[in-house]
Amino acid sequence: MDQTPVPVPPATVVYTDGACSGNPGPGGWAWAVPRGRYASGARARTTNQRMEIMAVLEAAKALDGPLEVVSDSTYVINCFRDRWWEGWLQKDWTNSQKRPVVNRDLWEPLIELVRQRGITFRWVKGHSGDPMNELVDQLAGEAGRTQQGRQGVAPELEHKKLRRNESSGWPNQRR
């Protein structure tokens, strides 16, 4: 009997972010894979927290295989790091204050995908110069402002602080 372990494919790293002007107000979400695909979308009346969750949910639906989600949202990160979701399920979707969990319509499908696929999460400090975090921040903000999403291939970025290219809206590398 062959005892050779089956190799597990490496996790795809995906950066996510949400943005909202007003709370509630027009918002946008975005995800991007370094040197890979990106997508963004918008909602007319939403909250920042909903857009943060939506970004992760849309990435998980669009990308196959193992994922490592990188987010600056402590709301999203804490849900999985501190396993809030397990308590929500045990308490029939009520939180520690015995109130209904906010954004359940987004959390339910996301938690199901996390449970099925073993998605992991990593926090990154927002606005700290991480090129990919800055990119998804700009894409989410743009989607919120224009109320239009887009998709494509992320530009090649080095791990240097970025400045915004005012003509295109895309970040440029500092030299």
Give a verbal description of the structure.
The strands form two sheets. This protein has a six-stranded mixed beta sheet, sandwiched between helices. A hairpin with a 6-residue loop joins strand 7 and strand 8. With 175 residues, it is an alpha/beta fold. It has a single domain, classed as Nucleotidyltransferase, domain 5, CATH 3.30.420. It is globular and about 60 Å long.
What structural keywords apply?
175 residues, alpha/beta, six-stranded mixed β-sheet, two-stranded antiparallel sheet, globular
Q: Could you say what the CATH architecture is?
A: 2-Layer Sandwich
Q: Biggest sheet, strands in spatial order?
A: 5-4-1-2-3-6
- How many domains make up the 3D coordinates? 1
* Content of β-strand: 25-35%
Name the shape in a single word.
globular
Tell me about the largest β-sheet: 6 strands, mixed
* Strand and helix order: EEEHEHHHEHEEE
- Total strands: the figure is 8
Could you provide a short overview of the structure?
The protein contains 5 helices and 8 strands. It is α/β, with parallel strands linked by helices and 175 residues long.
Please specify the SSE layout and strand pairing.
Elements: E1 12-20, E2 25-32, E3 37-46, H1 48-62, E4 67-71, H2 74-81, H3 84-90, H4 104-117, E5 120-123, H5 131-146, E6 151-153, E7 162-164, E8 171-173
Helix pairs in contact: 1-4
